[in-house]
UniProtKB/TrEMBL annotation:
<protein>
    <submittedName>
        <fullName>Uncharacterized protein</fullName>
    </submittedName>
</protein>
Length: 122
């Protein structure tokens, strides 16, 4: 019996009124977060360029590009004060004619892309 009741007790209720960035997180992200992300992105780009000959020899140029160049610049595009999960949720709300959206329990939903595959967001 304990094995069946344990997953139910692990569920977390999300208060939708408090979902998303707050005033404080937006201010901190504006003053501290975004400038540090810019420094990280520029530094990562420089490190990627310096490491490129070595990563080409090692055969992991794609991984180096992803971690040192792509991810830092993608982080700059995150909404102000948002966590990664909040940003993914807001970006998933954009209209797409090929997506069937089934809302399970806001903000959790099931997205079915009629062209490709099933994506479950939480």
């Amino acid at each position: 019996m304990i094995a069946f009741t344990q997953p139910a007790s692990a569920a977390i209720e999300i208060d939708e009124r408090d979902f998303g960035p707050s005033y404080d997180t937006m201010i901190v992200d504006t003053v501290v977060g975004k400038p540090l992300q810019l420094v990280t992105a520029v530094t990562g780009t420089a490190a990627y360029l310096v490491s490129l000959p070595f990563s080409l020899i090692g055969g992991n140029a794609d991984q180096a590009q992803q971690k040192l160049f792509v991810e830092p610049w993608n982080a700059m595009g995150r909404c102000l004060g948002c966590t990664v999960a909040e940003d993914n949720f807001y970006k998933s709300q954009d209209a797409n004619d090929n997506i069937v959206r089934i809302v399970v329990d806001q903000p959790s939903e099931i997205l079915i892309d009629t062209n490709d595959y099933v994506v479950v967001t939480k």
